[in-house]
Structure prediction request, 391 residues.
Amino acid sequence: MELEDIIGWTLRIGVIISIALILLGLVFLIVKPPEYHIFRLLSSPTSPINSSALPPLQSLTGIYQLNGIDVILLGLMVLIATPVIRVLMGIYNLLGRGIIYM
Amino acid sequence: MLSAALLTFAFLAVVSLVAGFLGSLTGLGGGTFLVPIYTLFLGIPIEYAAGASLISTIATSSGAGSAYVRDRITNVRIGMSLEIATTTGSIVGSLTAAWIYSHGLQRIIYIMFGIVLLGSIYTQITRSKYELPEPKPPDKWTRWLQLYGKYYDQALGREVDYWGVRWWLGELIMFFAGLISGLLGIGSGALKVLGMDWAMNLPMKVSTTTSNFMIGVTAATGSSIYWFFGYIQPFFAAATAVGVLAGSLIGTKVLVRIKNVTIRYIFMAILAILGVQMILRGLGIWAPR
Prediction:
């Protein structure tokens, strides 16, 4: 496979995994709903629930408890990581071929 | 309460779908329409609106853009060489946004957003007058960075050879594109296209697809900083990402069929209305909510 194919598939697979995790998180929210007040806070426009209140490592442990919000957060993390992985693959490939802009 | 929360999610996803659809048809990206709608009409704080928007542009860039990469229309090499500037700009932009938000100066973001919206009307007027640029002689950047490429143009039915010039100017514009992206939480694809189409003299199709390709890593950089400062509300961001991605995928399917000029006037009117409203909100003169 050439670089373009590797990059193209990385992007597509990353997005599919991310969207699948978001939808799975939504299902967990329905199956195993959190307490009433958390739900209220979650959908209020000026919600205090945000990324600074939810450390990434904490949400990774929450996934084992089928915590819907944590699974959604993991989906968002995968989404952010997708283009970063793409860049790393590109750099690795260019270094491997020894043609870094010279 | 469960159904109310799910209804919120579904509602935001539908609004995002419309924004993503409009963003795809105009080539401006979902965020351009999304942030004004969220802040002006849904009462969502601009930090959360920008955060959700920025995350959603990653989904659009990666999801809708991957096909162009595999079709070899996107120039990965030129894209990666310009990402140095867009990501640097994005770091500066999102840190500036964090400073502005922490000082309660949200109105600055509203005003800047309004100006960008009004400015993007211009891109709608001048858009795609020509498909291929008048060739300019290769300069030292072209040779040094090997900015040559070729792609198969379906409309022209032949292979097009091209090369980029004035890389330094492209890089400079990309820095500002990244800055705006991080500051306002949008992809700022129009500025990226300007950097490649006007500054580097690349064919339109290469410029738009490579711009879309670069938006992903630019937005990922900004999103990480937004994440740290707590501007990502998971529920809103997730609904937005799903909606905008779906809207942009529908948009790219419809795009090939729409050849209507009046539709473009409607887009310009929407941009003008949202732009003026954002500025008025920023000045504290009028707020619809």
Summary: The CA atoms of residues 101 and 274 of chain B lie 21 Å apart.
